[in-house]
Automatic annotation (TrEMBL):
It comes from the Eukaryota. This is Glutamine synthetase. It comes from Friedmanniomyces endolithicus. GO terms for molecular function: glutamine synthetase activity; hydrolase activity. Pfam families: Amidohydro_2, Gln-synt_C. Belongs to the glutamine synthetase family.
Length: 936
C-alpha cells in the first residue's frame, strides 16, 4: 500500500509538471511569415554562426531536437533532417498559425524582449497574444533604446560624428542630450503598464563588470568613452553602443531610475542581464554573473534576473540568488542548447543552493516557434527527472516537489513581474474531473486566488508618483509627473469666471453618484500641487445606504483624481446656490498608481489596448431613456404617477406640448450650455417616457457625458417638482432601457482586417452575454424587459441587422475606416455604465486577442418565429437570463470573463451585489421599486 501511495504521488507530480501553464519570463519575437520560411532552421539548437554552424548537426542537442521534431511534425522515426525541413515548410505554407499555436500550447504569457531584431523582420510583441492564454508583455532592451535615440540625434544634426568629434563642447552637449533622452525613455517605460521589465546585453558589449561609483564619476567615464570610443565609429557600427564607460552608464542610469520609482511606491520592474552562454561575440570570462556583484550590492531594491542559467556559471548564479534578496536565477536557453544530461545537471546545480522561490522559467524562444516548443518539452522532462529523483530519495515530499514545479513555472514570475495573473484557469486545467483538491496543499486554488485579487488593489499601471506636491528627480531628470494640466483649469475659469465650487464626482460599484465639493480656490490649489482627494478604502464596499459589505475594508485609503478633461459647468436652471461645475474622477492608490478596481480605469485601459495593439478606435453613443414622474400622486405604484400618459412613440400631443415639450426643450438648452449637444429628442412608448440621443464619443468620455447629462436631466426635473427616473420599469407595461451604440473604427486597417476584428469582438460579447447581463441589467426589475415580441431585446442570445428583437442589433455599415454601428440593447439605466461598458469592451477585446470566430449568423427575423431547427442552424441556442439570479450565476461560472476583466473586478462586484440583493429582498416589492426610483 505504501508503494502504491508513493507511485500515486509521483504520478500526480508528473502530471502537474507536464500540464502546468508556464509564464515564460524571457523570450523573443517570432519572425514574420517570409523570414519564418526562409531563415536558417539549423540555428535552433546552437549559438554558432558561419562556418561553425556546419558542425551543429553532430551535437547531442541537435540530435535530441531532431528526435522530438519528428513527433511534432508527425514524421516516421527514420526521417532525416531534409524530411524535417521539408515537412516544416509544408506546414508553414498550409497553416502557419496552427503550427505556432501548437508550439506555444501551455504558455500563459511570454515576456518578450523585442530588441533582438529589427521590426521589419519580426512580428510585434502583441501579435503573440493570439497564441497565449494571457496577453504578452514587453521587456525593454536598454541598449536598443540607446541606439535608437543616438540614431535620431544624428538625423537631427545633434550628434557630432566624423571630424566634428574634435569639438569638445559639441561632444559634451551631445552626451547631455543623449543621456537626458535615454532617461526620459526609461521613465516612460517604467510608467508603461505594457512594460514589465528591462534587459541589458552589456555582457555582449563590454562585459558584466559594470563599474559603479559616484554620479559624477559615472558621468565622466560615460562622457569620455562616448567622445573617444563611440563617436568616431558611430556610423560604421550603426550606433551600437560598445564603449565601456558608456555601457556602464546606461546600466547604472536604468538601475537608478527603477530604484527611484520603487522608493516613491511604484512596483520595481526587474532588470534582466544576459549571462553566460552566448555567440562568439561574447567574452566568456566577462560573462560570469560574479562580475555583477558590486552592482547587485549597490542597488539592493532593483530586482536583477540572471538569464540563461548563467551556463556554465550556474553555481555562481545560484550563490548570488541565495545571498542577495534582489537576485533571481533564470534557467532558460540551455533548453534546447545543451544535451539532455547537461540540462538535468544544470537543474540540479540550480537547486543545490538556490531557494526555489528565486528560480524562474523561460525558453529564450526566438525567431522560430519550434524553439519555444523544444525548450518547454525538454525543460519539463529535465525538471520531472530531477524532482522525481529527489522525491524517491526523500529529499522532497511529492507535495513539496509539486509546489517547487508550480513556483518555477508560474508563481515566481507572476510575483516578481507584478503580472497579477489569475490561477483560476490554471487550477481547473490541472484538476482532473471529479478530483477534490485539498486547499491546504494548493494555496493557489481559484477561490482563494479571486479573494486575494479583491483585496490587492495596486497595479503597476499609470503615471509616476507625485508626492506631497514635490517633484522627485534622478540624474537631473524629472521622474514624477503631475496628473493635471493647470492650463485646462485656467482656461475653464476664464470662460466661466462665476464658478465658485467644483463638484468632483464618481460612480460607485452600484451606480450611486458620489462626490466631494471643493471651493474653486481649494480645487485650484489641488490641481497646481498635483494632489488628490483621500477617501477610505472602505468606500469601495458600501451599499447605496452606506451599509457595509464583506468587501468593505475601512483600513487604508484610496485617492480620488479629478479628470480635467471632463470639467463642465453644472446646469443653472432653478438653482438657488452658487454657480458650480462638475468634474468626473478616477481612483489611484497611495503610490499614485491607477486602481485596478476602478471601473473607469478599466474602461480606459481596454480602449487604449484596442488602439495601441490593434489600431482600433472605439466610439460610443448612448440613448438616455427617462421617465418623468409627478411626486405624491396616486399612481400605479402608489407614490409616483407619470407626467403624461396620452402619448405614444414619436408623438407630440397638445398635452405633451403644454407640459413635456417645454421641459425637454429646457433640458436640451441647458445641456448645450454645458457643452453636451443633443442629436435628437422624442417621446417613447411608455407613460411619461422620453428619449435624448447623445453624440458618439470615445468610451470614457461617452460615459462621463452620459453621467453628467443624466444628472442635469434629474436636476431640472426636480426644480419643477418632478422626479426623472431611469428605472427599467417604473410603471407596468413598456420598459426603459439605456441602449449603447458602439462602433470599431480604424485609420490604418483595411475593410477586411477591420471586419475580422469587429466580428471577433462581437462574437466574444455574444459568447459572454449571459454573464455580462449581471453588469448591464443589475437589478431584479431589469428582467421585466427580457421578453419576446416587445421591441426590447428578446430572450435569445442573437444578433441581427436592423433587428430590434435581439439583444445585439447591427444598425448600419459604413465605408472604409469605419466599422458597423452596433446597438447593445440589454442595458438599462441602473447600471454603473463604466462597469457595464467596460465589461462589454473587455469581453470583446478578449475575442480579438483570441481570434474568436463569429459562428452565429445574422438573424433578420424575430427569433420567436423560427423553428428550433432554424435557430440551431443559425447558431441561436442560448437564452438570456430571465432573472438577476440567473445572470449572477452565469457571471460566477464565467472564468474567461473574470480573466478578461481587471483583477478582482468580478469577485468584488459579486460580493457587492449579493449584499445589496439581500438588503433589497427585505423590502416589500412596491417599497423596493420606490426606493430604487428615488436613487436612479
Amino acid at each position: 500500500m505504501a508503494d502504491d501511495a508513493i507511485t500515486a504521488s509521483l504520478d500526480e507530480l508528473k502530471r502537474v509538471i507536464r500540464t502546468h501553464l508556464v509564464i515564460d519570463n524571457h523570450g523573443h519575437n517570432i519572425l514574420r511569415s517570409h523570414q519564418l520560411k526562409s531563415g536558417n532552421f539549423l540555428t535552433i539548437t546552437t549559438e554558432a554562426h558561419g562556418e561553425a554552424l556546419e558542425d551543429a548537426p553532430k551535437s547531442l542537442a541537435h540530435l535530441q531536437a531532431v528526435r522530438q521534431l519528428k513527433k511534432l511534425y508527425d514524421l516516421p522515426a527514420d526521417a532525416d533532417w531534409a524530411a524535417i525541413v521539408g515537412k516544416r515548410a509544408e506546414l508553414l505554407e498550409r497553416d502557419a498559425d496552427s503550427l505556432i499555436k501548437k508550439c506555444l500550447e501551455g504558455t500563459q504569457t511570454i515576456l518578450i524582449d523585442d530588441g533582438l531584431d529589427s521590426g521589419a523582420n519580426i512580428e510585434p510583441y502583441s501579435w503573440h497574444n493570439k497564441f497565449t492564454t494571457s496577453p504578452c508583455k514587453r521587456i525593454v532592451r536598454i541598449e536598443t533604446v540607446a541606439a535608437s535615440i543616438l540614431s535620431t540625434l544624428y538625423q537631427q544634426g545633434r550628434l557630432p560624428v566624423g571630424i566634428a568629434v574634435a569639438d569638445e563642447e559639441a561632444c559634451n552637449l551631445g552626451w547631455v542630450s543623449f543621456i537626458a533622452e535615454f532617461e526620459q525613455a526609461i521613465v516612460a517605460a517604467i510608467q508603461d503598464d505594457e512594460v514589465v521589465g528591462f534587459k541589458s546585453v552589456v555582457c555582449y558589449r563590454t562585459g558584466l563588470d559594470v563599474t559603479v561609483g559616484r554620479d559624477l564619476e559615472v558621468n565622466e567615464h560615460g562622457l569620455r568613452s562616448f567622445s573617444r570610443h563611440f563617436l568616431p565609429d558611430a556610423l560604421a557600427r550603426d550606433f551600437r553602443v560598445e564603449a565601456k564607460g558608456m555601457n556602464d552608464a546606461l546600466v547604472i542610469s536604468a538601475c537608478k531610475l527603477v530604484a527611484a520609482a520603487y522608493e516613491q511606491g511604484a512596483a520595481a520592474k526587474p532588470l534582466q542581464f544576459h549571462t553566460g552562454l552566448g555567440d562568439n561575440d561574447i567574452s566568456l570570462l566577462d560573462s560570469s554573473p560574479a562580475c555583477l556583484q558590486p552592482l547587485i550590492k549597490h542597488f539592493p531594491t532593483v530586482p536583477i534576473v540572471l538569464l540563461h542559467s548563467s551556463y556554465p556559471y550556474t553555481r555562481e548564479a545560484g550563490y548570488l540568488a541565495t545571498v542577495y534578496k534582489n537576485v533571481y536565477l533564470d534557467i532558460g536557453e540551455v533548453f534546447p542548447m545543451v544535451s539532455r544530461e547537461g540540462q538535468e545537471l544544470i537543474v540540479r546545480q540550480a537547486l543545490e543552493l538556490t531557494p526555489t522561490s528565486k528560480i524562474l522559467w523561460s525558453t529564450d524562444g526566438h525567431h522560430f516557434p519550434e524553439t519555444y516548443w523544444l525548450a518547454n518539452v525538454q525543460g519539463r522532462e529535465a525538471i520531472e527527472k530531477v524532482l522525481c529523483d529527489y522525491v524517491e530519495h526523500e529529499d522532497l515530499t511529492a507535495a513539496q516537489a509539486t509546489k517547487v514545479a508550480q513556483d518555477i513555472f508560474f508563481n515566481n514570475s507572476n510575483t516578481l513581474y507584478n503580472l497579477r495573473l489569475s490561477n483560476t484557469e490554471l487550477a481547473s486545467r490541472e484538476k482532473p474531473a471529479g478530483h477534490s483538491q485539498d486547499a491546504k496543499s494548493n494555496p493557489h486554488d481559484a477561490e482563494k486566488g479571486q479573494e486575494t485579487q479583491s483585496l490587492d488593489i495596486r497595479t503597476s499601471k499609470g503615471p509616476m508618483p507625485f508626492v506631497n506636491g514635490e517633484r522627485k528627480t534622478v540624474a537631473g531628470h524629472d521622474v514624477s509627473r503631475s496628473p493635471y494640466d493647470p492650463q485646462k483649469l485656467t482656461r475653464f475659469t476664464t470662460e466661466h469666471p462665476n464658478i465658485q465650487f467644483v463638484v468632483v464626482q464618481w460612480l460607485d460599484y452600484l451606480g450611486t453618484l458620489r462626490s466631494r465639493w471643493l471651493p474653486i480656490t481649494a480645487f485650484d490649489k489641488l490641481v497646481k500641487a498635483g494632489n488628490r482627494i483621500g477617501i477610505s478604502k472602505g468606500n469601495l464596499g458600501t451599499l447605496q445606504n452606506d451599509k457595509t459589505t464583506p468587501v468593505c475594508d475601512p483600513v487604508g485609503q484610496i485617492l480620488v483624481e479629478p479628470d480635467l478633461d471632463s470639467l463642465r459647468i453644472m446646469q443653472t436652471k432653478g438653482m438657488i446656490g452658487p454657480a458650480a461645475s462638475t468634474c468626473m474622477a478616477r481612483f489611484v492608490d497611495n503610490s499614485m498608481q491607477p486602481l485596478s478596481l476602478c471601473p473607469r480605469n478599466q474602461l480606459q485601459g481596454f480602449a487604449e489596448t484596442l488602439e495601441q495593439d490593434y489600431h482600433i478606435n472605439l466610439l460610443v453613443g448612448f440613448e438616455i431613456e427617462v421617465t418623468f414622474c409627478r411626486r405624491g400622486a396616486l399612481g400605479p405604484n402608489g407614490h409616483f404617477a407619470p407626467l403624461d400618459s396620452n402619448h405614444a412613440w414619436g408623438t407630440l400631443s397638445d398635452e405633451q406640448l403644454a407640459h413635456a415639450f417645454p421641459l425637454m426643450a429646457a433640458i436640451s438648452l441647458e445641456l448645450k450650455g454645458m457643452g453636451i449637444e443633443i442629436e435628437q429628442l422624442h417621446s417613447e412608448s411608455g407613460a411619461g417616457q422620453y428619449e435624448f440621443v447623445l453624440p458618439p464619443l470615445p468610451p470614457v468620455q461617452a460615459v462621463d457625458t452620459l453621467v453628467q447629462a443624466r444628472q442635469c436631466i434629474q436636476q431640472i426635473a426636480a426644480a419643477q417638482g418632478l422626479r426623472a427616473t431611469y428605472h427599467p420599469q417604473p410603471f407596468p407595461g413598456i420598459g426603459t432601457a439605456a441602449h449603447a451604440h458602439i462602433s470599431l473604427n480604424s485609420d490604418s486597417l483595411t475593410a477586411e482586417e477591420l471586419e475580422k476584428i469587429e466580428m471577433s469582438f462581437w462574437a466574444s460579447v455574444l459568447e459572454h452575454l449571459p454573464a455580462l447581463c449581471a453588469f448591464t441589467m443589475p437589478q431584479a426589475g431589469s428582467y421585466g424587459r427580457v421578453v419576446d415580441d416587445s421591441w426590447t431585446n428578446g430572450t435569445w442570445v442573437a444578433w441581427g441587422t436592423q433587428n430590434r428583437e435581439v439583444p445585439l442589433r447591427r444598425v448600419e455599415t459604413y465605408g472604409v475606416g469605419n466599422g458597423s454601428r452596433w446597438e447593445v440593447r440589454c442595458l438599462d439605466g441602473l447600471a454603473n455604465m463604466y462597469l457595464a461598458l467596460g465589461a462589454v469592451v473587455g469581453a470583446g477585446l478578449h475575442g480579438v486577442r483570441n481570434g474568436t470566430k463569429m459562428v452565429m449568423k445574422d438573424c433578420t427575423s424575430n427569433p420567436t418565429t423560427l423553428s428550433d431547427e432554424q435557430k440551431n442552424e443559425m447558431g441561436i441556442t442560448q437564452r438570456l437570463p430571465t432573472t438577476l439570479d440567473q445572470a449572477i450565476e452565469a457571471l460566477q461560472q464565467s472564468g474567461s470573463l473574470a480573466e478578461a476583466l481587471a483583477p478582482g473586478i468580478v469577485s468584488h462586484y459579486l460580493a457587492m451585489k449579493q449584499a445589496e440583493q439581500k438588503m433589497l429582498s427585505l423590502m416589500p416589492q412596491h417599497e423596493r421599486k420606490r426606493w430604487l426610483m428615488e436613487r436612479y
